[in-house]
Amino acid sequence: MMKKFPLHWQIFLALVFGVLFGVFFPAQVKYISWMGDIFIRALKMIIIPLILSSIISGVTNIGNAENLGRLGLKTILYYVMTSTLAIVTGLLFVNLLQPGVGADLGLSRNVEDLDIITDSFGQTLIKIIPTNIFQAFVENRMLSVIFFAILFGFFITRTNRKSKKVLTDFFDAVFDVMMKITFFIIRFAPLGVFGIVALQVSESGDILDLAQSMGKYMLAVMLALAVHAIITLPLLTRFFGKAKPLKHFRNVTTPLLTAWSTSSSSATLPLTIQAVEENDGVSNKISSFTLPLGATINMDGTALYECVAAMFIAQAYGIDLTFGQQIIVVVTALLASVGAAGIPMAGLVMISVILSAVGLPLEGVGLILSVDRILDMFRTATNVWSDSCGAVIIAKSEGEELKV
Fold this sequence. Notes:
The structure is a single chain. By secondary structure, the protein is mostly helical. It contains 17 helices and no strands.
């Protein structure tokens, strides 16, 4: 009977029970939080082999360089367009609501312990090429892994017929095995989500106090995310993808709920691939190329949040940013979101890049730490929603017949 109970409803119930358990039994959370830890570790375990095999398999199935170039260009254009629209939406709401003006907020936490990343965009591009690919695997440097996988997959297509067949079949088989492992891990998602949410709720302190002190800032972020997720992305899916946004949303409910609860677009990647292939009908050729790339560089929610956070910090410090400086915030947020890892709180670390670009004090990060984990859940779900919409739009542009 339980097998017929849809997974997304199991995850939703796990979310509800996790919140209730965290609120009413905070002292007992330590006995069930291990389930969330094991689930996240299992998902992280398969990320590198899944991304490597899926991209190599996808590139070899795309075929020639012309097809690869066309698909790559479409994917990058979509990601740049949606991220820019998200940032502009965030900028609009933060200027309308002015959440930082008159805010009397002390720094809630010391920022010295944050692992601040200060690489410029140029340095980020250079570091895409790994000096040691195995070190890139160990350190989870996704851009380097993706670069190597695309390169490896492309040159498989340039080898002789025998080598090409052996390697293509091998990586297709590896990808098939990785998806089987993924489906096995996904079966335990409700238990993992229950443990994760219960722990986060128990550690969040008094949510009402947070809402009172940071309510306007949270409202600005949430409204901007809502407009982007509920209006912008569905319109793009409808008019460019010729698909039904509501049906597509139902098809990807499981990865969206998982993204919301884990705050990790990378950890959610296996579920996103499964959902768009099985429910939307997107081919493996498209999904295995666009989705791993999207989980690494397409961060609509993160880019929007970074823009709003930087503007909020400027307002809280009484610094009036000029139009030119706000444009710098937009551009830097776009570039910084590309380098943000698909892990919890990665966007928070990347804000330091934006603050430095417009001369704002890095200590301002302390203003937003108290509510970051809550907002992280919503911006990660937006990231994954954008990735899935992109897969549908690009698949449709390639002439594929979809189920949406």
